[in-house]
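Before the break, one more example. Copy the sequence into your notebook; we will annotate it together after we see the structure.
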Amino acid sequence: METKQSNNFDWAVSVAVLFASLILIYVAFVYNLPHQFEYVQQSKKVSNAQKSIYTSLASYNKDSEFPFVKTNIDNIYYVAKPNSDVEFYTYSGGKFSAVSRVKKLQLSLNFNGQKIPVIISYIQHGGKTLGFGTYVTDRTSKIYKYAFFKLCDMPKNYKSKSDLLLLVDFDAKDIFKSNKSYSEVFELNSKTLTATRAISIKGQNISVATGAMRDDFTIIDDCLLNSLNDTLVFLSSRNYKQSNGIYGTDIYSQKEFTGSPQLVAANVLDSFVLQTDKGILYLKDTSKDENKSFSLVLNNGKEKIISTFQGQIDDEYLRCGKYLFCKGTMTLYNLEDNSESVLLNISMNNIYTFAVSPDQTKVALGGSFENGMQKLVFYDLSIKRFKAVEQREIIFEDYPNLCFEDNNTISYIKHANSVDMIVGNFVINWDKIFSILP
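Here is what the structure looks like once it is written out:
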């Protein structure tokens, strides 16, 4: 009896020591990164038995401390580290190569009385300017403890003496996401380094939580930014989040830094706004009685409903750029040209990410199951066939960054194979998926 109690005691002590060790490892891991990054979970080691044929087909499959994030320039990725120079890489033939000609801008900007210094690393590639910078502080006295900066060219024909736009995101959970939303926008003169707010802050409400200007006064995401021409178009939800039962954002436009922005549309859904030659496209709630629905609207001075979708957008749909995906009917909608395609014979729960190839013939879907398994589906719309892969920790759910580099190359972020790293960068060739996978 005494021996059994002793064994039980030894077992309990061993479990306690192991548990304490795991806690210490995690605390050390979090301590070595800024607190803004603590949502990143420690990766688990993947056993050899879990490795699949799919993994062996990868053109690139390597772990890293911080992920490669795709930009809107073909084959260009960046790596953002806290309070460090952002690095740029080109991807070609299964290899990431560092970009050597990286320029830098050193700035100090005022946000609600707090000076934020930042070094913007930028490149000029294919006639485009693109740059990024990060700011992180652990000082609790600061209003802003994190900021991410994006530098890009001024919209074509936008009336400004400056040649660049500088956008700022204060949400640390977006740091590794390929599509971000920005709540501050500046006009930046590259010669004088003079930065002026491109959007007036008149009427911008104060956040009770932070004491700073509310960051939902200005919302410009990367999808909207890529469609800008001669007008700055942005969203604001400041009048809605403080009211119960009201859901939506307002669209504003501005052609130059004078006067107040003009209201384009009120109480629109999601953050989808796309400028086209025919006008501005957005989504709007058109529910009647208890039947939930929303519509695609074209506004060229007057609203016109283009198409209507049944159900609630938050629960039943996903959006990636100009594409909308209905999880219930497995229907893919192109909101720009108002076309649709049905993905046949796919059974998949909890879909949380998807991507569409540039030529619109291929779709990749990512989802998970209750037993911890994850699933990736690769669907060819031209032949109505698909390949599927099920595996644990195959993709990072928090920021999968699933995207097509080109019509035949897919990249995404997965869990690291090693406990010493956080993420794995994975690139695979579409042709290999269909020719080799069973």
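Helices lie at 2-31, 53-56, 222-225, 313-316, 430-436. Residues 1-9, 11-50 have pLDDT under 50 and may be disordered. Try to locate both features in your own notes.
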